[in-house]
Amino acid sequence: MAISKNHVLKLYKTMLRESEKFSSYNYRLYALRRVRDTFKDGKSLTDSTEITEAVHKAEETLEIIKRQVVVGNLYAAEKLVIEKKAEKELTSRQGIRESCLDGDRNT
């Protein structure tokens, strides 16, 4: 059975999406990095059996990621300083953007 490019792309995007759900900053970045690196390395595969094996391994890894996200959310810890800082910057940027838009509406 041939694996289509669409199937691989969908699997890649799903793995990235699921990896984003980790509540732990370190686990989240590690999972994202591993998914990207693994798929980047898999780009060079040409043999159909190797591709099929790699896709099956990725599907198994996706299931592991899903399970670990659930377990990680059961025991979620306080956010790290770097995460709090990023959230603060994001909300301040949104506030600035909204105030600029309100200023445009008033003129």
TrEMBL record:
<dbReference type="InterPro" id="IPR045297">
    <property type="entry name" value="Complex1_LYR_LYRM4"/>
</dbReference>
<dbReference type="Pfam" id="PF05347">
    <property type="entry name" value="Complex1_LYR"/>
</dbReference>
<feature type="domain" description="Complex 1 LYR protein">
    <location>
        <begin position="7"/>
        <end position="63"/>
    </location>
</feature>
<dbReference type="GO" id="GO:0016226">
    <property type="term" value="P:iron-sulfur cluster assembly"/>
</dbReference>
<dbReference type="GO" id="GO:1990221">
    <property type="term" value="C:L-cysteine desulfurase complex"/>
</dbReference>
<protein>
    <submittedName>
        <fullName>LYR motif-containing protein 4</fullName>
    </submittedName>
</protein>
<dbReference type="GO" id="GO:0005739">
    <property type="term" value="C:mitochondrion"/>
</dbReference>
<dbReference type="InterPro" id="IPR051522">
    <property type="entry name" value="ISC_assembly_LYR"/>
</dbReference>
<dbReference type="InterPro" id="IPR008011">
    <property type="entry name" value="Complex1_LYR_dom"/>
</dbReference>
<comment type="similarity">
    <text>Belongs to the complex I LYR family.</text>
</comment>
